[in-house]
Amino acid sequence: MRNAPRTALVVALLAGLGPAPLSAQAPTPESTKAPASTEPAKPAEVKKEAPKGPTSLQLKVGDNVNVKFGVLFQPQADWSQEAVSGGYQQNLFLRRARFIVGGQVAKNVFFFFETENSSLGKVGASGTKVISTGFQVLDAVVEWRIAKEFNVWGGLIYVQTSREALKSSSSEFMMDLSSYAYLATTALAGTGGRDTGFLARGYFFDDRLEYRVGVFEGLRDTASRNSFRSVSRLQFNFLDKEVYTLPSYPGSYFGSKKILALGAACDFQKDYKGFTADLFADIPTSFGSVVGTASGQWWDGGKTLPTALPKQNTVSIDAGAFFKGSKLGPWARYEQRTYSANDLKDEKRFLVGLNYYFAGSNLNLKAGYGRVDPNVGNSTNQFTIQLQAYYF
How far apart are CA 217 and CA 2, in angstroms? Predict the structure, then answer.
C-alpha cells in the first residue's frame, strides 16, 4: 500500500472504494450471461420492482419470430500491484464490449448470440498494449423447448459447473465473477466459461428442480478420438422459480424476486473430475434487497491435467446489499484456494466494493479494492473503477 499511486487512492476513495476483478480477468468470461429470459414472471413471483431501465429494442415478425438487439460496454480504470517490485501497473481500458442478439425463430425455438472484444487497450504481462484484438463469438446457443421436462440446447454454451459460472456479467453484483469460476473450462480448452456442445435441461416438482446435462468438446487429443467432457448439474429453488433463463442466470434481481437456490454439479473428462456445491440467495427487504453466493469446488486434473489443474479445492463467499433509496450497493467477497500436494501455492483473496446504480444494470458505476495473500511471497493490492452501460 505504501507504494500505491496517489491517483489510484484518490480516485478509488472518491468512487466508493470497492473490490477489483482480481478474478475473472481471463478470457472474457464474465459472461455476458445476459439473462434473456423469454418467459415473463408470473405476477405472484414479482415481489418488488427492480430498478428501471430503457425497454429493449425488438423486431417482431409474426407470432413466433422476433429478434432483440443489445450492447454491453464496461470502461475500466485499474491499478494492479506487482509482487516483487511493489509498483503498480496502471491501465485505462475497455473490460468488455459486446454486441447482443436474442429472440425466437420458430414456435418453441429460441436463440442467443453475442460477440465480445475484451480487455481492449490493456497492457499485458509482456508490456504490450492490446488495442486491436477484434471481436470473437462469446455465446451462440439455440434452445428447442420441447416440453418443460425436456429442452435441448446446441452451440457455444455456458458450461454449468456452478451457479457462479452461470451468472451474467451484465448483472453481476460483485463487479466481476469469482477468480475460480472458470478454472476447469479454461484448462479444458474452453473460452470464457463456455464450450461447444449439446445440453438437455428440464424442470420438475412445480418447476423448482432444474437439471442440466451437457456433453462438450473439452480437451482434444491429437487425433480427436478421446471422450468428450460431460457436465451435470441439479438446482432446487425453495422460494421463487427461475424458469427458462437463457443463456444464464441474473447476478442480481434487485428485489424483484425472492430466490434461495441450492445447487450441485459434477464434471468429467478422461481421468479429470470436478465437483461443486453452491447456495445462492437474493432476498427482497424493506430497504431493497440482499444478495449472496457461497460455493465450494473440488478439482482433480489427474493425468489429464496434472499441471493446469492439480488436485485442489476452492471456496468463494460473497454478499451484498442494494439500497433502493440511495441507489447504493456495498459488497464483499472472500476466496481461498488450497492445493493438496503443494501448500506453497495456496492463496487467499479479499475484495470489497461499492456500486452506484444510476439506472439498475443499464447504467452503473462500481469501485473496488482487492488483495491477494499468497502462502509464500508478497501480498498485492488492486484498485478498480468500472462504468457499465448495458441495453438488452
Answer: 47
User: In this predicted structure, which of 59-73, 154-168, 314-328, 363-377 has the lowest mean pLDDT?
Assistant: 59-73
CA–CA separation, 36 vs 45, rounded Å? 17
Confidence at residue 133, expressed as pLDDT on a 0 to 100 scale? 78
**pTM of the full structure:** 0.84
Q: What's the one-letter identity of residue 164?
A: E
Separation CA 185–CA 188 (nearest Å): 5
Residue with the three cell numbers 425488438 = 58
C-alpha cell read off for 350:
479479499
3-state secondary structure of 13: helix
**Cα angle value 343/347/352 (rounded, 5°):** 165
Nearest to 177 by CA among 364, 323, 19: 19
Domains of the chain: 6-391 (2.40.160.10)
Q: Where are the alpha helices (DSSP H) in the chain?
A: 6-15, 183-187
Dihedral (Cα; 180, 181, 182, 184), 10-degree rounding: 70
State whether residue 343 is helix, strand or coil: helix
Q: Rounded to whole angstroms, how far apart are CA atoms 245 and 277?
A: 20
How far is it, in rounded angstroms, from Cα 84 to Cα 380? 9
Distance between CA atoms of residues 361 and 56, nearest Å:
13
